[in-house]
Amino acid sequence: MQSLSYPLSKRRMIPIYSVMTLYAACAPIAVSGGLQHLTPLPSSVLLTFTAISFLFLSIISNRELISLKSVNKVGALTSLSIALPALLSLIGVLTASLTLLSVEYVDYMSESLVNRLINLGLYSVLTMLLLYYINKEAQQTTSALIFGYTIGAGILIVGGIWQFLHFTIGYPMPGFETRAYVHSVESDVLFNFRLTSFTDEPSFLVPFLIDGLLIGSLLLSRKTYFLYALFAVIVLVLSFSVSGYLNLAVIGCAAFVLLISKKGISRKTMLYSILSSLVLVGLALAVFPELLLNLFMPVLGRLDGLFDVMHHSRLYMLVFPFIWLSDYSMINMLFGFGSGSYDFLARTKFLSHQGTLSGTSNNVFVDLLFEHGIIGSLLFTGVFLSILLYLWLKRNNHLYVGIAFLLWLHLGVTSMYRSDFASPRFWLIVIIVAGLIELARRNKALNQFGKEPFLKAKVTT
């Protein structure tokens, strides 16, 4: 790959774009449980704070005037839809602290509340700074972020292949504590492990893999992207993540619809593709029924109790916050219990069949409902769906808008099973979407790194 090519007048900005690239490359692995505890501060927080410091120092040293009037509205509205309700939720915090008289709530206030507000503050500042740089130089900023993120997702792909070799032939690998074991399955399985790469569990890994599939298509050459996508899909399949399979199916169908709506594929070709796929699947099931059954048993064996609220932990933690929210005052229903207050539920509520709740429902929308109340939840959901509708309506205007739509839809799907709105990944996807929209609006292309990318935007000069 070639290095970024900058005009002479902009070479002083190379260190800043390098920081952006490094931040995006480290984001996928920074949230790993093993790395989070290596430093006094969580690695994701330390990484974000360092990036903000460099960006601020650049602005100060260059004596630039920061104006946020012209920044991309998608990024700004998303940040506002979380930051503003987080501040309003302090009304709920005050109300709950005066009425609940709970030791557990006081513990939450002194720990999780402070940490979450600091996290959201850091990501809000980082988002606005990167939006400022996108407004200033959309091409270089977006290219740097996409380049770095593709590398970061690639590291997880390599980690997944490495882990597969470790489990199958004993190839040495550092001992990361992950949920790689197969659980809730009583039948025989072909592989008694699930790939997690350097993340904590399969559902943490899958979003990064699909991010890489979408973003890498704009950067990598056809041959490189084919290998990148092939290994990414192999790792995803062997993660045996139910949510990951559904996620990939939704994005695949959406991409198919985009191709049809842009007339990038004829109906005849579409029909042949569907029929060929069905025939291949049918043949595989007919020739290797037992092999396929054992291969996918880590997924199939968990489907029986998937929708049993009282015995499925994740579903229980998704449904009952709607009930628990109404157990308290009207003010808390409207404004929530404060940022990170799902931790309060983890201290006071129990699963119906075993143990306590975790510190999150693993769903952004449910977490925000309890933490920011009905007002905050409606604001965020309304903004998110409005952006999705906007991107859908503009999808045929430019290749980058089509990819931005898929990324935003993917972010919505992953938000159903990963509550990562206080992590680098969520905000990087928001910023990359904003960058792609700006490039489409200005009719500019991403920087090319070597050969022509798999998907290339048509621009005029």
UniProtKB/TrEMBL annotation:
| Keyword Transmembrane annotated | yes
Source taxon at top rank = Bacteria
Q: Where are the transmembrane segments?
A: 12-31, 43-62, 74-101, 113-134, 146-165, 204-220, 227-260, 272-295, 315-335, 373-392, 399-418, 424-441
In its UniProt entry, what is this protein called? Answer: O-antigen ligase
Q: Which UniProt keywords apply?
A: Membrane, Transmembrane, Transmembrane helix
Q: Which residues form a coiled coil?
A: none
**Keyword check for Hydrolase:** no
